[in-house]
Amino acid sequence: MSAEEPLFRVVRGVPTADELAALVGAIVVRSRPAAAPAPVTTSVWARSARPTVAAPSAGPGAWRASGLPR
């Protein structure tokens, strides 16, 4: 492809300058590689509501341990 050759051409119809600009914009956006999604981060506030230690298991003393601070 030479520098004089157009990247695309309209084969039917007579598009306005605005229509051509929209077409070029759409082609440019579609030709870019997709961006990687941002990593999901959890806020400190949300993490504070989650228990850091597993819940007490059933067994002797479990009822008493369920009410004690961890």
From TrEMBL:
Domain of life: Bacteria
The name this protein goes by in its record: Acyl-CoA carboxylase epsilon subunit
Entries under Pfam families matching the protein: ACC_epsilon
